[in-house]
Amino acid sequence: MEPTPLLIVDAANVVGSRPDGWWRDRAGATARLRDSLVRVADDGLPPELPAPVEVVLVVEGRARNVPSAAGVRVVAAAGSGDDAAVELVAGAPERRRLVVTADRELRERVAALGAEVYGPRWLRDRTEPSDQSR
Fold it and tell me: Which of 16, 44, 101, 109 is the most buried (most CB within 10 A)?
């Protein structure tokens, strides 16, 4: 088994999970998500996901032109972002694969291929600075 786990993030689903005005600038919201994932490659997401981690952000639609960043590979889906995430999971059967999405159908598809599935809140709780004022 490949020792480096693969973390696949469904960008549209994670960005869309919080009503913070993302719809006014989908690419900007996706770039902010990408930037919040940069440290995950080196630091992991303890305790569930120790470092190092290969981080892949699957983008589609208006966010398709968001570029990769250090530690985060951005994959622009040719069609459905869900299909691209499934292809990534299917293409790495020898690895531990974690998919972040709240999409019920995608969750079922990747779980059937042996991937672990986590929701957007799990990711946000581990990548965003805590704000005690909320």
Answer: 101
**What single-letter DSSP state applies at residue 46?**
T
Chain segment 7-37, per-residue pLDDT in tens: 999 999 998 777 676 767 789 999 999 999 9
Helical spans, DSSP H, in the chain = 11-15, 26-37, 40-43, 81-90, 104-112, 120-127
Write the Ramachandran bin of 113: left for phi over 0, alpha for psi from -120 to 50, otherwise beta.
Answer: alpha
How do residues 101-116 score in pLDDT, each as one tens digit? Answer: 999 999 999 999 999 9
Q: How much is the pTM?
A: 0.91
